[in-house]
Amino acid sequence: MYNADNIIYQCPIEALSNILGKKWIAAIIWRMNNKKMRFGELQKCIDGCSKKMLKQQLELLIENGIVVNEKKLFNNTVESTYYLSNSGVKLLPIMEKMICWSNDNLNCDKHI
């Protein structure tokens, strides 16, 4: 059995699809693409995603071990940086294959 987003699945593909299929999740993962980003930087990269939604989706990704939130104290202020965990980085080639398949097989005008 597989647990994703506090739901138990029998199939690992269904569990991963539950996470990747949520609005903005794929865009968040793709934009991070092996770099550390502050919340504001990430929000600027994802046009149309509200602060509230971005925060919720980042929390989901952190809970599932896909994203890490690194906090550092700097001049009496906490600075928060987000980046892909090792398992999050392993999703990038999968997403690249999904993009290729979509480009070859779906009638889409937009790319991530």
Gyration radius, in Å: 15 Å
What's the CATH C level? Mainly Alpha
C-alpha geometry: globular
| Structural class computed from helices and strand pairing | alpha+beta
Order of strands across the main sheet: 1-2
Detail the poorly predicted runs.
Answer: none
* Proportion of residues in helical segments: 40-55%
Distance between the termini: 31 Å
What can you see in these coordinates?
With 112 residues, the chain is of the alpha+beta class. Helices cover 51% and strands 20% of the residues. The protein has one domain: Winged helix-like DNA-binding domain superfamily/Winged helix DNA-binding domain (Arc Repressor Mutant, subunit A). The chain has helices at residues 12-20, 25-32, 39-45, 51-63, 86-105, and strands at 2-4, 7-9, 67-74, 77-84. The chain has a two-stranded antiparallel sheet. Strands 3-4 form a two-stranded antiparallel ribbon.
Write the layout of secondary structure elements.
Layout (H helix, E strand, L loop, with lengths): L1 E3 L2 E3 L2 H9 L4 H8 L6 H7 L5 H13 L3 E8 L2 E8 L1 H20 L7
Antiparallel strand pairs: 1-2, 3-4
